[in-house]
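G., the chain you wanted modeled:
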Amino acid sequence: MADISPVTKAVVPAAGLGTRFLPATKATPKEMLPIVDKPAIQYVVEEAVSAGLSDVLMITGRSKRSIEDHFDRAYELEEALRNKGDSARLASIQESAELAQIHYVRQGEPKGLGHAVSCASQHVGDEPFAVLLGDDLIGSSDLLLKRMIEVRQQYGGSVIALMEVEHDQISKFGCAAISPTDEADVVEVTDLVEKPAVEDAPSNWIVIGRYVLDPAVFEVLEKTPPGRGNEIQLTDALRTLATTPAEHGGGVRGVLFRGNRFDTGDKLDYLRTVVQFASERDDLGAEFRGWLKEFVEKNGS
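Predicted structure as tokens:
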């Protein structure tokens, strides 16, 4: 029988160069770009914690020190805020340091998502674990990761998040061939293709940045040659696991996600994310929406 150990650890790859946001990311990690007043990566860690994962491993690289600083204590700043009696801002900066037990390991050189995940093997060991990509934010009311962990507990193997897109968008993503199960939101993944041509795509369901992986993925990644872009693709390793017997950690299932996903790795989607998050804030939303309405009426075409 497959091992159904509980999922307690999260891995957050954050070693990318962020070239799509240059020059802003020349000295600032893309994961630290703010969504209103909080860096994108904090939302990702909060999501992991809300799903019950308080042990978080960041896979970082050069010029990512500010991520570590953000999740550390800032004693001088805390003292300055305390002396001013600014308890609200004091609580906000202490929150990030107290969210989770956060560890760090450097990827060394960017060889792809599969290689980044393999860097977590020593920390994760023989336990199942979640992977959350910092470019993807999931709506706080959409309990995607929690549902994925439930599916892992029920079936074993690995679980990926799938989202349906228009046919002309498929070639930007990894794409899954799927077959239904008895549960409406769960499918069996029979094949995976990384960024296929539209005519070669097996479905309209793309892989988004949430995974719950069996530790068997590490051994598969060791044997996975570089694929698309001359990088070690996690998609290729999952394709192997999809046809691996369950007793060896195989089997891949997908959770069909129909909630809110925000791609902060794309400039236009990043701007949409900031606008939506600001619009929904209790302290900013009403005034911001009013200004936005006036702006659109004045400048819209």
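The chain has a mean pLDDT of 90.

Shout if anything looks off.
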